[in-house]
Design brief:
It is built from five helices and ten strands. With about 280 residues, the protein is of the alpha+beta class. It folds into two domains: about 140 residues, mini-chromosome maintenance (MCM) complex, chain A, domain 1 (2-Layer Sandwich); about 55 residues. The strands form three sheets. Strands 5, 6, 7, 8, 9 and 10 form a six-stranded antiparallel β-sheet that branches. A two-stranded antiparallel sheet has the order 1-2. A two-stranded parallel sheet has the order 3-4. Strand 1 and strand 2 form a beta hairpin. The two termini are about 25 Å apart. The structure holds zinc ion (ZN). Zinc ion binds next to loops.
């Protein structure tokens, strides 16, 4: 079983493994971003999902509620004289805050069952709130919203395959951290027959090649990764850590070996912790 966990500073971890969306939205051709006036950065977040936005999209109510929530956050920081800059890429928010202010009945259930959609919606909403506040200076890039204080902690003994793809929080002591490596998330390939290029998403670092050529009428079947620095190939920082459960007081002397679990950290979560942290 492979788990890809994102660990946040307070010890909560979001497991997000390759979820296929639940949406019935129409497919769009790959590599052709379609943005919408309402959410100019839509395709930054819903790239692999190949989804088209519409006002009755099932995520629309959540994204609207989150956008309003981020307005209040931006205003709050401004009044506290710690203004948020339009270049901010990562923001940490309180789970309790989000729940009480967004008034979405199924938020906790949705976050648990479909974390990729909810986290993407939060990122898009944050980008959108920044755009409405600051205008065109807001760069088109992926922002991460990290959820702090998620109170439903899963004991390591309950970490089973039925939690694959779920958003979970674990608590434990960091016993090992790996070195930081780049992991490739998308590779730009060019066709050896017609030179047409296409981007293939690389899930969990597994190498995936194109199956057909996007070129007009081209039946080329051989593709090579583009080597130029200008290609759309993208890597992110990656690190693996091992977390060990804290044995209850009455079991400390029982000789039982504490359970451990490996988690994978990416991007801004890399290099935040050292062994011994809880
Ligand atoms: Zn071709």
């Amino acid at each position: 079983m492979k788990r890809s966990n994102h660990q946040s500073q307070d010890g909560s971890a979001a497991s997000s493994v390759n979820i296929s969306g639940v949406s019935s939205a129409k497919r769009r051709p790959p590599n052709r971003p379609i943005d919408v006036v309402r959410f100019p950065h839509w395709s930054v977040y819903f790239d692999g999902a190949s989804e088209i936005y519409s006002d009755d999209h099932e995520l629309a109510p959540a994204i609207n509620a989150f956008t309003t929530y981020f307005f209040t956050i931006i205003d709050k920081y401004a009044t506290e004289k710690k203004p948020i800059k339009p270049s901010l890429r990562v923001i940490a928010i309180s789970y309790a805050d989000l729940q009480s202010q967004c008034q979405l009945q199924d938020l906790s259930e949705r976050l648990k069952l479909d974390p990729e959609s909810v986290l993407a919606s939060l990122g898009l909403a944050f980008s959108n709130a920044l755009i409405e506040k600051f205008g065109d200076v807001v760069k088109r890039l992926k922002r991460h919203v990290r959820i702090l204080g998620h109170d439903q902690i899963t004991p390591l003994k309950d970490l089973k395959s039925n939690l694959m793809g779920r958003f979970i929080t674990i608590r434990g002591t960091i016993v090992r951290v790996s070195s930081i490596k780049p992991i490739v998330t998308r590779i730009s390939f060019s066709c050896t027959s017609c030179s047409a290029t296409q981007v293939i998403l690389q899930i969990d670092g597994k190498y995936k090649t194109p199956t057909s050529c996007p070129g007009d009428g081209c039946r080329g079947r051989t593709f090579v990764p583009e080597r130029s620095g200008l290609s759309d190939t993208k890597t992110v920082d990656w690190q693996r850590i091992r977390v060990q459960e804290k044995l209850p007081e009455d079991q400390k002397d029982s000789g039982r070996i504490p359970r451990t679990v490996e988690c994978e950290l990416t991007e801004d979560l890399v290099d935040l912790i050292v062994p011994g942290d809880v």
